Amino acid sequence: MNPILEVEHFNLSFTQYDRGSRRRQFTAIRDLNLTVRAGEVAAVVGSSGSGKSLLAHAVLGLLPYNAAPSGTIRYAGEELTSERVAALRGREMVLIPQGVSWLDPLMQVGPQLRRGDRSPAARQRSAAALGRYGLGPETETLYPFELSGGMARRVLMACAVQENPRLVVADEPTPGLDPTAAGRMLGHFRELAEGGAGVLFITHDLELALAVAHRVTVFYAGTTVEEVAVDAFSSGQLAHPYTRALWDALPQNGFTPLPGAQPGPGEVLDGCPFAPRCPHCRPECRSGALPPWRETPLGRVRCHAWEGGDAL
Ligand SMILES: Nc1ncnc2c1ncn2[C@@H]1O[C@H](COP(=O)(O)OP(=O)(O)OP(=O)(O)O)[C@@H](O)[C@H]1O
Ligand SMILES: [Mg+2]
Question: For the chain, what is the domain count?
Answer without folding.
Answer: 1
